[in-house]
Every structure is written in C-alpha cells, then in structure tokens.
Amino acid sequence: MEILFGLLIIAVGSFCQSSSYVPINKIKSWSWESYWLVQGVFAWLVFPVLGAQLAVPEGHSLMELVTAENSFNIWMTIFFGVLWGVGGLTFGLSMRYLGVALGQSIALGTCAALGTILGPVFLNVFYPEADHLSKLTLAVIIGVVVTLVGISVIGYAGHLKSQSLDEEQRKAAVKDFNFPKGIVIALLAGFMSACFNIGLEFGGGLNFGDATDAMYKTLPATMFVTIGGFLTNAVYCLWQNMRNKSFADYGKGSLWLNNILFCALAGVLWYSQFFGLSLGKAYLGDSPTLLAFSWCILMALNVVFSNVWGIILKEWKGCSRKTIVVLVAGLVILVISSFLPEILK
C-alpha cells in the first residue's frame, strides 16, 4: 500500500509539472527570454531553496552542508546542474517545433532512460567501492527498455501526425512545427536533461542523515542542481535580452503583476515534480528496484500527462484515427512501464 501511495505522490507531482507550461500562455507582451528567466527565478531558485529548508532539522541551517567534506559532491551536483540547464534551454525549443505533447515525449523519454542508467554509472566511476552498478538490475533495465518502446510508439504517432496534416493544419496546432529539426533538438534536450538525475545521485548524501525526514532527503541536492541550471539559463537569457534589445520587457510596470503571478505559478508547478519525487521515494523504501527506477517513472508520467495536455490544447486535432490509436497505445505502454520493474523483480 505504501508503494502505491508513493507512486501516487510522484504522479501528482508529474501532473503539476506537465501543467507548468499552461500559465506561460497567460504571460503578456514579454519575449521568450524575459519570461523564461523570471519563471526560472521561481522554479530554480525560490522554490528549491524553500523546499530544501524542509530537510534542515531545528537548530541547523542549510549552510552547514557546505563543508570541505561535501565540497566535491556539491560541485559535481552543481556541475551536472549546469549541463542540465543546457537541456532545459533546448527543451523549450523542442516544444516550439514539436508541440507540448510530442516535444516533451521525445525529450523526456531520452532523459528517462539515460538519467536512470547514467546516474549509477557515473557514481561507480568515482566510488567503485560502493558498487552503484548493482542498482541497475535486470528488472530496472527491462523497465527502461519498455519506457523507450512507449516513447518510440508516441514518436511514431508524431510522425504519422506530421504526414497526415497539411501545412495550414500544422501551423494551427503548433505554429513553428518542424518534425526533423524538432526531433534533433528533442534528443539533445533529453541527453542533457538526464544530467539532472546524475546530479541528484552525486548529491544523495547532502542532508543531515537520520535527523532529516526521509521525505525531504533529496531536496537539498535538488536545490544544488537547479542552482547550476539557473546559471546556464540566466547567462543565455540575459545574452538574448541584449541581442534582441528586450531588456525593456522588465520595465513594463503595468504587466508586472500579471506576468510575475503566472511566472511564479509556472515555477511552483514545475518544481512540484521534484518535490513529489522526494516525498514519493520515502514510501518506496521497501522496493530498492522502484527506488532505482523512480527517475524513469517520473519522466514516463511526465510524458503521459504532457500528452493529456496536448490533447486538451488540440495539438492532435485533425489527426487520423490510426494516429490517435498509436498515441494511446504508447501512453498505455508508459503507464505499464511505471510499475513493471516491481512485478519483475
């Protein structure tokens, strides 16, 4: 029962993340780089710092984690956060060219598989004595493969969509739809985004041990990863502000209340996925297999819910019945992949 509750918490966080791009549509008269930076302040700084405070026992502070003993893991966590930030930038472009549903599907599918596998692999390079590769059991590998199958099926649905719609219909669903260009960008986004989980693996011990509630133990690591990601995004967005002469966006006082509100809402929804992941993992303690597979579960559910939003936003409107059947089949495979490793262990 606890395992089901943990999966439900992760699913709620996933649904929130998949909804995080909806408030962005309410932002008025700001360029992409301006609203991306402002929502990033909330998503990658404000809420992660607030979340990390929950891992701090009474009488202590977050700064106590910044010690010489922890310095290597902290810097590695931030470093992979910087790399993840590149994935975050290209992630937005993947949705620009493929839409919310297909863009998130391809990028998150790649991210799910590589994040699950590369985390233990990198840790094993630096800490071979801990045998981190033992986490990658046959059940976990099969779960990753099934997840990739589900993503491939959804990708095929996207290909069918591209073939079946005329140019006018494509533009109506996704203004800048470009399947070949979008696929390349989405794969790059997924590869770099996988660095988030590698960062979480390196930061797994950045807490106060038994004094930290099990539900909050990964939140300090999440904070260090998102700090790294914020640095990447801030540099790029400020450069774009300068290049496009869009610094004036921040001076539009009449828009601040509306835009800050929706940027903050997008930020908290985005952060909810990792807050939910941390809480959910606390209920998966009796299943080391699902703990090792939890990243893949989160990404798979993100794909499922992003496609739900894609349907709501009519991105699949006008597609053939065959395309919709293939899409639904892919979603069903992803749902099955979320608990398959527990059955196979």
Plain-language structure description:
The chain is mainly alpha-helical and 345 residues long. The chain has eleven helices and no strands. Helix 2 crosses helix 9 and helix 10 (288-312) packs antiparallel against helix 11 (321-344). It is globular and about 60 Å long. The model has no long low-confidence stretch (mean pLDDT 87).
Task: Kindly list the characteristics that best describe this protein.
single chain, 345 residues, mainly alpha, 11 helices
Order of helices and strands: HHHHHHHHHHH
What proportion strand?
A: under 5%
List unreliable stretches of 5+ residues: none
Taken from the alpha-carbon principal axes, the silhouette is: globular
Termini gap: 17 Å
Biggest sheet overview? none
Name the structural class.
mainly alpha
Task: Draw up the topology in text.
Layout: H1 2-18, H2 32-53, H3 71-126, H4 138-164, H5 167-173, H6 179-193, H7 195-202, H8 219-243, H9 253-281, H10 288-312, H11 321-344
Helix pairs in contact: 1-9, 1-10, 2-8, 2-9, 3-4, 3-6, 3-7, 3-8, 3-10, 4-10, 4-11, 7-8, 10-11
